Amino acid sequence: MLNTPVNQLAGIGPAAEDSLHKAGFFTLWDLLLHLPLRYEDRTQLSTKADYVPGQLIQLEGLVTRSQVLPARRPIHLLTLQSDIATLSLKFLNYQKWSHTLPKVGQRIRVYGQLRTDLHGQGELLHPTITRLDNHKIAPLPTRLTAVYPSIGTLKQNLLRKAIADGLERLKNTTLAPCLPHTSLTLYQALEAIHLAKPGDQMALTSGQHPAIQRLALEELTAQQLLAANARQAIADSNAPALSPTQDLTTRLIQLLPFTLTTGQQTIWQQIQQALTEQHPMHHLLQGDVGSGKTVLAALAATHTASSGYQTTIMAPTEILAEQLYATLSPWLNKLSIQCALITARLKASEKRAQLVAIADGRLQVIIGTHALFQEQVRYANLGLVIVDEQHRFGVAQRLALKNKGAIEQTIPHLLLMTATPIPRTLAMSFYGDLSVSNLSERPPGRQPIETVVIPETRREAVAERLASACQQGAQAYWVCPFISESETLDAQNVQDTAQWLKGRFPALRVGIIHGQLPSQEKEKQMNAFAAGMLDLLVATTVIEVGVNVPNATLIIIDNSERYGLAQLHQLRGRVGRGTGKSSCVLLYKAPLSENGQARLSAIRQSQDGFELAELDLQLRGPGEVLGTRQTGVGAWRVADLLRDTALHKIAQDNAQLLITTQPNCVQPLIQRWFSTRLLFAQV
Ligand code: ADP
Ligand code: MG
Question: Could you tell me the distance, in angstroms and rounded to a whole number, from the CA of residue 344 to the centre of ligand 1?
Fold first, then answer.
């Protein structure tokens, strides 16, 4: 039942299904774990006492007037006459949707935050509207209305309907297995979260509610079971002991345009040693953005190739895979190591040819995204897997590799590289056994990035500074939270920002890059920027990880109050990669929340990724994060490692108890929480 495909749920047509799949939602279970950001209480109509500016109110009444106020962007205004008051309903940028507004004479129910207009009159901006039939009674909801983190452009109501339908289907089924140490059933917990009772909102959003704790405990228990399994399986396996027949790594080191830092040398010794052993290496290489991890990947791949084995290198996005290929292939080619990039864009015939070359061992280093995990990729003799900046790669994925090696009972060595530091104890419990190294020194010649925090009202001045820097040969990024104008959220977007800058500074060569561009176009823009043909790249956070253009020395982050600390640090790391002095401008929209203030001041004061990551964990609060789930440490779906520390011990006990007393519960629990979604999700 939990595995019901999303397209069977009420209201999910092909377009919605597509958006859901793109965002990694395949089953009802996936949707049920999409926890509300917050709740709205629409169970009662407001009274006169509630009618206070700033309050969220709900009223019913008659539309008595409809006007359009002329402006560059006309304003649509409705007048609502209710028992309590007569007020305005205001809609900005509604030209395209004006036909959806209620007409004069229509009875409606509205929900929104009361403000006062210039004349001291009450108004609601973009309220939620329910049309009321003049003859029928429309009962008020009895449960809280959940507000979900957005998924693509899907409407909240659509998500609510699909989730409610899913819960209805689950109502009378038994959801095995049951979990020790819980008082709620899984269904009760899910219902309490999605169809929440008035009064529960605080406990739910803070995660203290028994329903959330119930889910978190189950997740942590499943994680413990998985780790136990994986440790066992890995302990039972061997890896190929990689011993090179030629000393190509020394030649690579001579070829490099720079000298390895002491840190890089030490870590390389460590990795090299581990690769020659029969015990599977599991190495986590942590190093802040720009610390020079890629060259270590190149060395490890070269070592593996010269031992007669293949290496596969996986990046979280196509852009990053392309960048890795662009960096690595010239080096490897000089050593006559055959290297290829596998992307979704390859023609079917090209792809077939490459798959054949992987299967017969001609290709020695294969670079791509997680698509490389698909079953159709068969390796001749995979010896090493390198995973760059992908924190969702855990024990489950590692076990899947077991079947990828050609030789029975061997698993390839594994090198994980990350700029997001992971506390060691946590890493151990998530990944099983592993060794950790830290690249703490930065390559020579790097200067700190000057970081300033500026209110968005000074956007004009910032733009001028940008234009003059570009005139002097600098390159810059401008990052916005959205691709195009958002219907509901008042935040900057790539399209309008690029238009504005182009109009304002005609000489500026402006490119655009965001997740909805075809990857060919993304690559074109990225290459043009890297080649210096563009001065400015206006982008969404697709440029977040790994993108390396050393000549880029200025980054402007719009609506910086919307991002987590780790993300800001990653974004800022796009500059300061060469020897030029770099700056980062954080534009924010006032007023800042306390949390937002703390984040911006931390990022301004510190350049230390480790320090910032710790702070981030402490500061990150629900509702502050952008629509997308943060791919944080371990990518928990419900559990929060700081909040739920008390559950860790119980989860460990649970796992032990299940293994000894209910062994048949073990696999189903692991399946539920760590299913194929993690293994094969297209990132
Ligand atoms: P990250 O750790 O973020 O993946 P990269 O590997 O992309 O960082 O390295 C960032 C930049 O530093 C690249 O341009 C790379 O060529 C350069 N670099 C790496 N190691 C050194 C070094 N020892 N000396 C000088 N530059 C280096
Ligand atoms: Mg990198």
Answer: 27
